[in-house]
Amino acid sequence: MRKKINKQLIGIAIAGILATLLLMSAVFYDLFKRQVQEDLAANVTILESTGIFQRESVDKIDIDLDDLRITWISSDGAVLYDNDADVGNMENHLDRPEVQAALAKGSGQAVRRSRTLNKSTFYYAVGLEDGSVLRAAREAKNILSVFESALPAIGIIILVMIVCCVVLARFLTRNLLKPLEEMALNIEGYTVKPAYRELEPFADTIRAQHEDILKGAKMRQDFTANVSHELKTPLTAISGYAELMENGIVQGEEVKRFSGEIRKNASRLLSLINDIIRLSQLDGMEEENGFETLDLEEIARVCVDNLRISAQKHGVSLMFQAEKTVIRGNRELVTELVTNLCDNAIRYNNWGGRVIVTVKGEAEKAVLEVKDNGIGIPKEHQDRIFERFYRVDKSRSKQTGGTGLGLAIVKHIVALHDAALELESEPGKGTKIRVIF
Ligand code: ADP
């Protein structure tokens, strides 16, 4: 990048220098041309005012002016006098543009290429009173030769300027890239200086991304550690019970109890693995994946019906009230969301408690509400229960077959559906969770 900026700066500078030189040469040459014409006009006026151009005394005219050629031409184009050539050999001059202009308008001028390549002849002609034309001419360098003679000077100027440009371009590039390099070395602690204000949003974005990456890495690390720990506990139990049974230490009724423990831990492992797989699927899922128009009332009704046995087991009455409500979503995920919320409301309830599941439309939105009068969640835990493996009461969660991942899955599904999640809870009174689609 540094090289590219450098090259571009030098390129722009050289193009600028060349363009300026060319334009300046053209302007100066134009000025020079006008000056030559004005000199010629002044000369002609002076000569005219002397009154020497009389046909009777044409032989007496003798003009000798340095490099100034004077020609006197009659109105029919015949040359009457020329201070530089033999009149007898000269062709008719009526077709010369400056002569024609002088005859028509009183004066005229022209520039023609000389026989010598790098020179031009400038002409200025005026009409005299008797109808004849007086013309002055002079050879001068043309633009090519002016340019040619100025070439060494131009070359030196360009060289000096290029050297200046290279040095300046290096300096500018270094200054331009300095804040970027400093930022790259230490994005965290870098503060954008006022002169580079435009870099502020760039630095902010990179910093935010950097923080996100760090946070993501930390979360993955924590999750892996948690998963290993969670898997290890039931596996250790299973292997312990199995070892005791293998050694024949366990007898009679105990065999049944130990087998039950093994089965319970194995099913815990299965739930854990299912939830982990579900989370990783959700992580890689794009929004609107498998979306269709869903009857939320029907989905919730099926979920509630499937949980009736579990509710009975916990001594909890399960109520369902719904009106026809349609949403766009993924059937499997919405089913999982409703099931997880209802399951929690049953498990974290008291014997004789109640769970009310409501589906309704509210301000053009579909709302799913799961309300229980169970144990509730203390304020300080409310923000964290949606984190992976976060539980308020670990033993109660495990006892009731919880994995600590249910609400993390809920949060993920809500996000994929672009929905909102609201929680109201008070310890001892109960919990209300609303999902607004
Ligand atoms: P778990 O598998 O432990 O139930 P969740 O992610 O579903 O995990 O919930 C996280 C924690 O939030 C639970 O351990 C529990 O402490 C608390 N919790 C969730 N739902 C409720 C509820 N309805 N009432 C009281 N506490 C709840």
Walk me through the structure.
This protein has 437 residues and is of the alpha+beta class. The protein folds into three domains: 2-146, Beta-Lactamase (2-Layer Sandwich); 208-283, Signal transduction histidine kinase, dimerisation/phosphotransfer (DHp) domain (Helix Hairpins, Orthogonal Bundle); 292-436, Heat Shock Protein 90. It has eleven helices and twelve strands. The chain has helices at 2-50, 97-105, 143-185, 200-246, 253-283, 296-306, 308-313, 331-347, 379-382, 394-399, 406-416; strands at 68-73, 79-82, 107-113, 119-127, 133-141, 292-295, 317-322, 326-329, 354-362, 365-372, 420-426, 430-436. A five-stranded antiparallel sheet has the order 2-1-5-4-3. The two termini are 48 Å apart. The model has no long low-confidence stretch (mean pLDDT 90).
Binned strand content:
15-25%
- Structural class, by secondary structure, is alpha+beta
Continuous helix count: 11
Specify the biggest β-sheet.
Answer: 5 strands, antiparallel
Unreliable residue stretches: none
Computed CA radius of gyration, to the nearest angstrom: 51 Å
**Shape assignment:** rod-shaped
Span from first to last CA?
Answer: 48 Å
Q: From the coordinates shown, what is the CATH architecture of the largest domain? A: 2-Layer Sandwich
Whole-number count of domains = 3
In round numbers, the mean pLDDT is 90
As laid out across the biggest beta sheet, the strand order is 2-1-5-4-3
- What string, H for helix and E for strand, traces the elements in order? HEEHEEEHHHEHHEEHEEHHHEE
Helix content: 40-55%
**What would CATH call the class of the largest domain?**
Alpha Beta
Any idea of the CATH topology of the largest domain? Beta-Lactamase
- List the bound ligands: adenosine-5'-diphosphate
CATH superfamily of the largest domain: PAS domain
Task: Count the beta strands.
Answer: 12
